[in-house]
Design goal:
The complex is a heterodimer of chains A (about 190) and B (about 1000). Chain A has about 190 residues and is of the alpha+beta class. Chain B is α+β, with helices and mostly antiparallel strands. Helix content of chain B is about 15%, strand content about 40%. The chains are: A alpha+beta (about 190), B alpha+beta (about 1000). At the A-B interface, helix 1 of A face strand 14 of B.
C-alpha cells in the first residue's frame, strides 16, 4: 500500500470511528471511584481520600481519562492540614484537578471476563505539571463491570510541589496513591 | 571451517552472563563536575551528543550548546513562542557532518556558522509533531523514529509512515538502531520490533516474551560493540539480548532501581545505567558485580538524564541535580589509604584480582567492607620489611624482604616456606622476582638466583637453583629488576651497569651505545611486537629491538626522565609511572597521554615495586593519597587531541571558509579562531600555528586565536596543530589555504592590457598625424593645382579673346561701359590673384566675384545668360573660385543662345547647402576639357568638410550642391594662413 493511501485510510478511519464504531461500543464511565493518598514521613502519617474520581474508558481505542478534583480530598489529621494541602501545596485554586490521560499498552478484550494486569501509559498532571507515567493496574472484568485498582507513587519534586523545610519531616517526598474504581458501560 | 571471532566473543559474553550480577563495592571512578556547569548556570542539560570532531553538543531546555571541554557556544532557539522551554529530543550528525537537533515538537534544526539554528526541511516529511527520538541515514534514506507517530522512512521516491496499523507494537518509539543490512531495531512499549523495508512495504517482527524478549517497555538500547544489545527497560532492569540466537539474559536480578533512562557501554568492561530515581549504576561485565551511586561527594545525584561515552574514554553523566559530571574510565580509584599501612613498597594483584601490599612492616590485603576499604594484615608471622611480591604460575605467593630472604606462601596448603642464602639466595635482600612456568629468578643486592619451580616447592627438602653472581657471570651486584620476556630470556636491570641478559644460561651485557648511555635500569617491559623497553635513571625511556637502542626523552613528549616503572597493557600501550603522574605511551604512533590531577590523580610513590599488572591486564598502582587501577582497555580510544578551525574572520566579518578562499587585496586582515579538543584534560591544550607565506617557524601559544593584519597579496596556508603533552606528534592539524589577490593594477592582465592600450593609442595618434599630414599635403597640392587651373582658365586665350572682343564692341558704343567693363575684368583678375592662396573665403566675397564674372559674361551673352543668386547665409565660407568654376563649367558645357538661354541659379536648399544649378542643354560637340574643375571641387571639399559635394544630373537640370563651411576654424584643417 502506498504511504499516501495508508495515511488517507488512517485519516478517514479517525474521523469515521467516532460516528460509527463508538456509537455502538459505548464508553465505560465511573459508578464508584475512590482515590486514597498517604504520606509516610518520619514524624507523621497522613491519609486522605476522595470519592469524586471521574473516569472514562474508551474500549475501542483503549484510551482512558481519570480526573480528580483536588478539593474533594478528605481525611487528613486536622482541618488545618487539609487547608494547607489545598492552599499551600496543591494550590487547588490554580490547579483544581489532577488528571491522568492516556492509553492502555496491552491488547485488552473488554468482552472477556477475568482479571488482567495492564500498563496504563499516559500523561499525569498534578499541580499543573505533566509527566509521562506508565502505571501498572489490575482490571477485573465481570458482567460488564470494570473493577480497576492501581497503586503508584508520586514524587513531589516531579510536580514542583514545594514543601517548606520546617515540615519536611512531616510530609514524605514521595506520596503513595491508591486508586479503586468501578466502571460500567453507559 | 573458521569460527568467526564475533561468535566466539558472543559465546564468551554469554558465558560471562551465566552468573547474575552481585551487588558489590569495588574501586570507584572519580566523578568530576564538568567546567561546563558554571557556564550553563541554571540550565539543565538533558541530552548529550558527541560529534565526530569531538565537540560535545548539549541540549538544554533553553537551547543548544556546543562544549569544547573549556568553553561553550550557545545556539539560541528560534525566536518563536512555540519554542519556549521546549526540550531537545535527539541530536544527530549527518554523513555530511552536519549536526541536527530535533525538538519535542518534531522540528529539526541545524546550527549555523553565525550561531543560529536554521530549520531543516526534509523532503516528503509533513505532519510530524511528535518528538524525534532517533535519526539514521541508511543509503539514500532517512529513518526517523518518533515518539507518538511511529516510524518515518524517507526515500528519494516516497515517504513511509509505519504505525500500529502496520503492525508496530506501539507508536511511541524510544530508540532505533539500524544494522548494516538495513534491519531496524525499534524500542517500543511492548518489546523490540524489527523492521525490514521491502519493495511493497515492510516486514515487521515483534520480539516479545514468546520469542525471547519480555514485552517490556524498552527505554534504551545500546550495542555491545558487536551484534548484541544491552537493553534498558521501564521497570525490569537491564538485559543483554542477542538478536541472532534471540536469547536474552538479565544482568541484575530482582531489579529494584526503577526506570532506566540511559545506558552507556564499555564493551567487555562495564555498563553504566542511568536511572530515573535510583541514581547511577556501574555494572562490571568482567566480575558481574555492580555498584550504585546515589550520591557524589555527599550530594544526591538525582535523576540521570543521559549518559555518554566519549572518544577518549571518559563517561559523561547528565543529572538533574548535579548537571554534567565527567569520569575518566581508564582509571579507577580507591580513595582512602588506612593510616595503619606505612610506606607501601610492593604491590601485587593475584589471579583472583585480590590486591596484596608489601610494606615496611609486613604483608596486607585490600578488603572492602560495607563500602569502606581497609587493609587486612596477612601472615602476622612475617614481620619483615617487604620489598617485592610475586605470584608464580602455580599460585604461590613469593614475598621478597629486605635482608631476610624470601617467604613463599602456598594458598593451596596455606603453608609458608622461608628461603635464605642457605637455600641458594645470593643475598637476603630481594628487590625483584619474576619467572615463567619452570623457573623463578630472584634479583637481590648481590646477584640473581634461578629457582626451579617444582610441584613440591613448599615441602621439598631443597629447591634446585642456579646462582648468577657478579663474578664470574654478572657485571653488577644490585639487581633492581628481573624481567622474563615472552621468549624466556631474563633481563636484569642493574645499578649503574646497564642491562645483563641471561639467555640459555649465557649472560650478555648492554650498557648503551655511542649515542645512548644508560647505567641504572629500574624497570623493564616487552611490547606486543617483542621489543624490550626499559627505563634508566635520568635517561627516560629506551627501546631495544634486538639490534639497536632507541631513546625517548622530553623532546619526544615524555614529562619526566626519571621513570620509576613501566609495563605494557593488553593493547600494547606502555604505561610509564613517575612522580609527576602517569604517561601512556603508544609505541606505534609514539603518542603520549598525560594523566595527573586532570583525572583526579594524586601524588604517586617513587617506589619501584608499587606497581602490578593483574592477570586480566589491569594495572594497579599505589600513590600517597590513593591506590588506583588502570583499566586495561578493550577498545581503541583516541590518543591525541582533535584540532579544528572554528571560525575565520576577514576584515571583521565571519566567512564560510569551506567555500571561500580568494580575497581582494584590501581584504587582508585575518582572524583565525581554532580549537583543540581533549576532553580528558582540556586545560593542557597547547597550539602551534604557522602561516606559510609569512611565518617561517611555528608559533606556540595557548590562545585560541591569532590575528594577521594587512597581509600582502600572495598565497598563504594557515596550519594549526594541537597537543596536550607539549609534543606535537602525532598531531591532528588543520589547514586553510587562501589567496589574497594583488590589486588590479598589479595584476598581469592589467599591466599587459595597459601596455597594449598605450601601444595602440600611440599607433593611432601616429597614424592620425600621418593622415593629417598627408591630407594637408594633398590639400596643398589640390589648391596649387586649382590655382593653377583657375589661372590657366582665366588666362585662357578664349576668355581673354572673348573679353577683348566684347570690349572692342562696346568701346565705341559706350566708352563709359567699356571703362566699367575693364574695371570689372581687372577686379576679377585681382580677386583670383588675391584668393588663390586661401583655403576658404567668405561666401560673400566669392559671390561678388561671381557677380563680376557674370558681368563680364553678360556683356558677351546678353540676355541669353541668366544668373540668379539667392542666398541667405552670410557667415559662411567656401573654397575660393569654386562657384566661379561651376558657373564657368555651365557655360562651357551648355549651349547659350537666344533660342536656348542658359539659366544658372545659385541658392540654398533646406539643409543649408549652396546649390549651383543650370538648365541642361549640352553642346553637341564636347568641349575640350581637363575634367579638372568639378573633381577638384570634390577633392577639396573632402579635405575640408565631412559633408560631401553632391552632383545631380538629369535631362532638365544639372546641379551641384556645396556644403557651406560655418567658420574658417571648423574646417578639418586649420587654414594655412592662420598658422603662418
Amino acid at each position: 500500500m502506498k504511504p499516501f493511501e495508508r495515511n488517507f485510510i488512517t485519516f478517514s478511519l479517525l474521523f469515521l470511528l467516532p460516528c460509527t464504531v463508538l456509537s455502538q461500543t459505548s464508553f465505560y464511565r465511573v459508578i464508584r471511584g475512590n482515590v486514597a493518598l498517604s504520606s509516610r514521613a518520619p514524624l507523621e502519617l497522613i491519609n486522605a481520600r476522595s470519592s469524586s474520581v471521574q473516569a472514562i474508558i474508551d474500549p475501542a481505542r483503549k484510551s482512558f481519562k481519570f480526573n480528580i478534583p483536588i478539593t474533594s480530598f478528605e481525611g487528613f489529621n486536622s482541618t488545618l492540614q487539609r487547608q494547607h494541602f489545598n492552599t499551600n501545596y496543591m494550590e487547588s485554586s490554580i490547579y483544581p484537578e489532577a488528571k491522568f490521560v492516556g492509553n492502555i499498552i496491552e491488547d485488552l478484550d473488554f468482552r472477556k471476563e477475568g482479571t488482567f494486569t495492564v500498563r496504563a501509559k499516559g500523561k499525569l498532571t498534578i499541580h499543573g505539571v505533566t509527566r509521562e507515567r506508565i502505571i501498572k493496574s489490575t482490571i477485573k472484568i465481570q458482567s460488564g463491570i470494570l473493577q480497576i485498582n492501581a497503586n503508584f507513587s508520586v514524587l513531589l519534586e516531579d510536580h514542583n510541589i514545594m514543601i517548606p523545610k520546617i515540615v519536611n519531616q512531616k510530609i514524605a517526598e514521595e506520596i503513595q496513591i491508591q486508586i479503586d474504581a468501578k466502571l460500567a458501560q453507559s | 571451517m573458521t569460527l568467526s571471532w564475533h561468535k566466539v566473543n558472543r559465546v564468551i559474553l554469554l558465558i560471562l552472563f551465566c552468573g547474575i550480577g552481585q551487588y558489590s563495592f569495588a574501586q570507584q571512578p572519580n566523578f568530576l563536575p564538568s567546567t561546563a556547569n558554571d557556564l550553563l548556570g541554571d540550565l539543565t542539560a538533558s541530552k548529550i551528543f558527541e560529534s565526530s570532531f569531538g565537540y560535545l553538543w548539549i541540549g538544554t531546555d533553553q537551547g543548544l550548546y556546543r562544549f569544547d571541554g573549556l568553553e561553550y557556544k550557545a545556539y539560541d532557539l528560534p525566536k518563536d513562542s512555540s519554542f519556549a522551554s521546549i526540550a531537545v529530543s535527539t541530536l544527530y550528525e549527518t554523513e555530511k557532518a552536519e549536526i541536527w537537533v530535533a525538538f519535542a515538537n518534531g522540528q529539526i534544526f541545524s546550527p549555523t556558522f553565525s550561531g543560529d539554528l536554521q530549520p531543516i526541511t526534509l523532503t516528503g516529511l509533513s505532519g510530524l509533531y511528535s518528538p524525534i527520538r532517533s535519526i539514521v541515514e541508511y543509503k539514500d534514506q532517512i529513518w526517523l523514529a518518533t515518539y507518538g507517530q511511529g516510524l518515518y522512512v524517507l526515500t528519494p521516491d516516497s515517504t513511509y509512515n509505519f504505525t500500529v496499523e502496520d503492525g508496530l507494537s506501539g507508536n511511541d518509539l524510544y530508540q532505533m538502531s539500524l544494522d548494516s543490512t538495513g534491519l531496524a531495531y525499534l524500542a517500543t512499549d511492548r518489546g523490540v520490533n524489527t523492521l525490514q523495508l521491502t519493495e511493497t512495504g515492510a516486514i515487521i517482527q515483534k520480539i516479545t516474551l514468546a520469542e525471547g524478549l519480555p514485552a517490556n517497555v524498552i527505554r534504551t538500547m545500546e550495542s555491545d560493540g558487536q551484534d548484541g544489545f544491552f537493553i534498558g527497560t521501564y521497570d525490569n532492569g537491564v538485559y543483554y539480548w542477542d538478536p541472532n540466537s534471540n536469547q536474552e539474559q538479565v544482568l541484575i536480578e530482582d531489579w529494584d532501581y526503577g526506570v532506566i533512562n540511559s545506558l552507556s557501554v564499555f564493551p567487555e568492561r562495564e555498563i553504566w545505567i542511568g536511572t530515573e530515581r535510583k541514581g547511577l549504576i556501574q555494572y562490571d561485565l568482567r566480575t558481574k558485580t555492580y555498584q550504585v551511586f546515589s550520591e557524589i561527594d555527599g550530594l544526591s545525584i538525582g535523576r540521570i538524564l543521559d549518559l555518554h561515552k566519549d572518544q577518549e574514554g571518559n563517561l559523561w553523566i547528565l543529572s538533574n541535580a548535579l548537571n554534567i559530571l565527567k569520569t575518566n574510565r581508564r582509571f579507577d580509584f580507591i580513595p582512602v589509604i588506612s593510616p595503619e599501612v606505612k610506606e607501601i613498597q610492593a604491590l601485587l594483584t593475584d589471579v583472583n584480582d585480590q590486591l596484596w601490599l608489601g610494606t615496611q612492616t609486613g604483608v596486607f590485603q585490600l578488603k572492602s567492607e560495607n563500602g569502606q576499604f581497609k587493609y587486612e594484615r596477612k601472615f602476622p608471622e612475617i614481620q619483615a620489611n617487604i620489598l617485592s611480591l610475586y605470584q608464580d604460575p602455580r599460585g604461590n605467593l613469593w614475598i621478597g624482604t629486605f635482608g631476610e630472604g624470601i617467604y613463599i606462601y602456598s594458598p593451596s596448603d596455606e603453608k609458608i616456606r622461608h628461603l635464605t642464602t642457605e637455600d641458594g639466595l645470593v643475598d637476603g635482600s630481594v628487590l625483584s622476582i619474576d619467572g615463567n612456568q619452570e623457573h623463578i629468578w630472584v634479583g637481590t643486592l648481590a646477584g640473581v638466583t634461578e629457582f626451579h619451580l617444582g610441584a613440591d616447592i613448599i615441602t621439598s627438602e631443597m629447591i634446585p637453583y642456579h646462582r648468577f653472581e657478579q663474578e664470574p657471570q654478572l657485571n653488577a651486584t644490585f639487581i633492581y629488576k628481573v624481567f622474563v620476556d615472552s621468549k624466556n630470556r631474563v633481563w636484569l636491570g642493574t645499578d649503574s651497569e646497564g642491562i645483563n641478559l641471561i639467555e640459555e644460561d649465557q649472560v650478555s651485557y648492554f650498557k648503551g651505545t655511542d649515542s645512548i648511555a644508560f647505567n641504572t635500569v629500574y624497570s623493564i617491559t616487552e611490547d606486543l611486537d617483542g621489543n624490550i623497553w626499559f627505563t634508566s635513571a635520568n635517561n627516560g625511556l629506551i627501546k631495544f629491538d634486538g639490534e639497536t637502542f632507541l631513546s625517548f626523552g622530553i623532546e619526544d613528549g615524555l614529562r619526566n626522565l626519571n621513570i620509576n616503572s613501566l609495563t605494557t597493557d593488553p593493547k600494547g600501550n606502555i604505561l610509564l609511572v613517575h612522580t609527576g603522574g602517569i604517561d601512556l605511551f603508544d609505541p606505534n604512533s609514539e603518542a603520549v597521554i598525560y594523566y595527573d590531577e586532570n583525572i583526579g590523580l594524586g601524588k604517586l610513590e617513587p617506589n619501584l615495586n608499587v606497581f602490578s599488572q593483574a592477570p586480566n591486564g589491569d594495572i594497579w598502582l599505589s600513590g600517597q593519597e590513593q591506590t588506583l587501577k588502570y583499566i586495561a582497555p578493550s577498545e581503541a580510544f583516541r590518543v591525541s587531541p582533535q584540532t579544528t578551525l572554528d571560525e575565520i574572520n576577514v576584515n571583521g566579518s565571519t566567512i564560510d571558509f569551506t567555500q571561500k578562499n580568494r580575497f581582494s587585496y584590501y581584504k587582508n586582515t585575518f582572524l583565525f579562531n581554532f580549537k583543540g579538543i581533549w576532553l580528558t584534560a582540556p586545560d593542557a591544550l597547547q597550539y602551534r600555528y604557522k602561516l606559510e607565506g609569512l611565518d617561517d617557524d611555528w608559533v606556540y601559544t595557548r590562545d585560541q586565536e591569532v590575528n594577521y593584519v594587512n597581509l600582502n597579496p600572495g598565497n598563504y596556508t594557515f596550519t594549526i596543530g594541537t597537543t596536550a603533552n607539549n609534543y606535537f606528534a602525532p598531531e591532528t592539524s588543520q589547514s586553510y589555504s587562501f589567496t589574497i589577490r594583488p590589486p588590479f593594477w598589479q595584476q598581469a592582465w592589467f599591466i599587459l592590457s595597459t601596455i597594449v592600450f598605450i601601444v595602440w593609442i600611440t599607433y593611432l595618434s601616429l597614424r592620425t598625424r600621418e593622415r593629417r599630414l598627408m591630407k594637408e599635403s594633398n590639400l596643398r597640392r589640390e589648391k596649387i593645382e586649382s590655382q593653377f587651373e583657375a589661372l590657366k582658365s582665366q588666362i585662357n586665350p578664349h576668355f581673354l579673346f572673348n573679353s577683348f572682343n566684347t570690349l572692342v564692341a562696346i568701346i565705341e558704343e559706350s566708352p563709359d561701359m567699356a571703362v566699367s567693363y575693364v574695371e570689372r575684368l581687372s577686379d576679377f583678375y585681382r580677386s583670383i590673384l588675391q584668393y588663390r592662396d586661401k583655403t576658404v573665403i567668405p561666401l560673400e566675397e566669392e559671390l561678388s566675384m561671381v557677380q563680376n564674372y557674370y558681368y563680364l559674361l553678360q556683356e558677351r551673352f546678353g540676355d541669353n545668360l541668366k544668373l540668379n543668386i539667392q542666398t541667405k547665409e552670410t557667415e559662411a565660407y567656401v573654397p575660393p573660385l569654386c562657384i566661379q568654376m561651376l558657373v564657368e563649367n555651365a557655360i562651357k558645357h551648355n549651349i547659350v543662345s537666344t533660342r536656348k538661354p542658359l539659366q544658372i541659379t545659385i541658392n540654398q536648399d533646406d539643409r543649408g547647402k549652396l546649390v549651383v544649378s543650370n538648365t541642361m542643354q549640352p553642346k553637341r560637340k564636347k568641349p575640350q576639357s581637363t575634367s579638372f574643375g568639378l573633381s577638384s571641387i570634390i577633392a577639396r571639399y573632402a579635405l575640408l568638410s565631412d559633408k560631401r559635394v553632391q552632383v545631380k544630373k538629369n535631362n532638365q537640370e544639372f546641379s551641384v550642391s556645396l556644403p557651406l563651411i560655418k567658420s574658417r576654424y571648423t574646417s578639418k584643417l586649420i587654414d594655412t594662413d592662420m598658422i603662418s
